[in-house]
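User: I'm new to structure prediction. If I give you an amino acid sequence, what do you actually give back? Let's try with this one:
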Amino acid sequence: MANADLVAKLANIGMMDSEPNVRNKASRGKLTAVFLIQCLEAIGASSLRLSDG
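Assistant: Good question. You get back a string of structure tokens that encode the predicted 3D arrangement of the chain. For your 53 residues, that looks like this:
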């Protein structure tokens, strides 16, 4: 998914962020847990698997 697509999906759930800001967060590795959950919500993820077990 392109950054622009993620920014649009985040906007749909009320999370206003710019494409450069999202790109910078990802490239610096500075993603907060809150931002991760917002992204998962924005892309319509219904579950998250943390292990294969």
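You can read the tokens as a compact description of the fold. Here is one thing that stands out. The chain has one domain: 3-42.
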